[in-house]
Amino acid sequence: MAMASLFHQSSKTHFYFALANVSRRSFSSFLTSFNSRTFKLPFQVRAVTTPTEAFVGFDEMISGTQRKYFMLGGKGGVGKTSCAASLAVKFANHGHPTLVVSTDPAHSLSDSFDQNLTGGALVPVQGVDSPLYALEISPERTREEFRAASQLHGDKGVKNIMDSMGLGMLAEQVMQFLESKEYSAFSRIVFDTAPTGHTLRLLSLPDFLDASIGKMMKLKKKIASATSALKSMFNKGEPQRDDASDKLEQLRERMAKVRDLFRDSETTEFIIVTIPTVMAINESSRLCASLKKETISVRKLIVNQILPPSTSECKFCVMRRKDQMRALETITKDPELASLKIIQAPLVDVEIRGVAGLKFMGDMVWK
C-alpha cells in the first residue's frame, strides 16, 4: 500500500492518532490560513507562559527570558535543518524573539522556510507570533570582512591564523552574538549546524586557538626580548609597542568567551538528530562521546523519520518498521545515548516547507 496511507491507518498510540487526524485537505487549509498571518512587533520578549496542554520537555526550553542557545547537529541527511527551523518557529510562537542560524556551508534554511535567506545578513521570517529572524552565515563574506579589518589595523598575525581556518569565521560570528547590540534582543538562538565532523571542529576550535596563540605569544615574547636587548646594546632607543601581540591576546580572550558559551550548561544545549538506522545511531553515539569530552551539555536525542505501526499487508512497511525498531533498541543499550531523552519524530506524507509546515512538524516533535 502507498506510504501515504500509513499515517491514516494507525490508531495504536496517541502520538500517531494526532497525526492521522490531519488530512491533506485540512493541512492545505492550515497552510493557507497560517501563512496569511502578519509579522508582529514590538521586538521584545512577551510574557512567556506554558499552556496547559504543553508536555514536559518543551516547557523547560521556553521557561524564562534569559537568552539560551540550542545547537542541533548530527549526521548529514537526518533532518537537522527541519528540526532546527521547527524549533525556532515554536519558540517565536511562544513569545521569544528568536534567531535561527545556519553554520553549514551547504545551507538549507532558505529551502526549509521557503524564503530567500541568503546574503549573510539577518532576514525576518513572516508568519509567527514574535519576531523570528534567520541568518545563513556566509563564510566568504565573513572572511572578507575580517581581512578588511585586519588590513586596516595592520594585524597580519591574526589575519594569517584566521585565514587558514574557515571555522574561525564561524567562531567570530558566534562572538558577535555575545557582543553586538544587533543581536541583544533575541532570547533564543537556534543553530542549524553542519554535519558531525565540521561541527566538532568548530566546537573544539576555541581550545585549539587558545593553545596555538599561547605558543605564538611565548615565541614572540622571546624574540621581542632578544631584539630589545640588541637594540639597547646599540643605543637604538626604546622598543616599540607590539600591536600584533595585543591583537592576538584580544583574539585569545574572545575565543575563551566562545568556549565558555559552548560549555555553559545553563544557557547552551546541544541536541543530536539522527534517524533509526544502525549506521546513523553509531555516528550519533560517537558524536555524543565527543561532545561530553568537550564538556558540552547534551540531553536530548531526536530520532527522525520513524514509521508508525502498520495495520496493512504492506510487507515493505512491516519489514522497514521492524528494522527501525531494532535500531531503536540499540539506543537503550548504547553507553553514550541511553541516558538521553529520546524524542521520536514521525515520517510524514507531506514535504515540510514554509512556516506553516514547520509549525505542523514542531507540534509533533517539540512536546
TrEMBL record:
- Answer whether the UniProt record assigns the keyword Repeat to this protein: no
**Domain ArsA/GET3 Anion-transporting ATPase-like, residue spans:** 68-364
* Biological process according to GO: tail-anchored membrane protein insertion into ER membrane
Q: Does the keyword Coiled coil apply?
A: yes
**From the UniProt record, which GO molecular function terms apply?**
ATP binding; ATP hydrolysis activity
CDD domains registered for this protein in UniProt:
ArsA
Q: Which InterPro entries match?
A: ArsA/GET3_ATPase-like, ATPase_ArsA/GET3, P-loop_NTPase
Q: Which GO terms describe its cellular component?
A: GET complex
Q: Which UniProt keywords apply?
A: Coiled coil
Database matches in Gene3D superfamilies: P-loop containing nucleotide triphosphate hydrolases
Per the record, the coiled-coil ranges are 241-268
- What's this protein's name? ArsA/GET3 Anion-transporting ATPase-like domain-containing protein
The opening ranks of the lineage are: Eukaryota, Viridiplantae, Streptophyta, Embryophyta, Tracheophyta
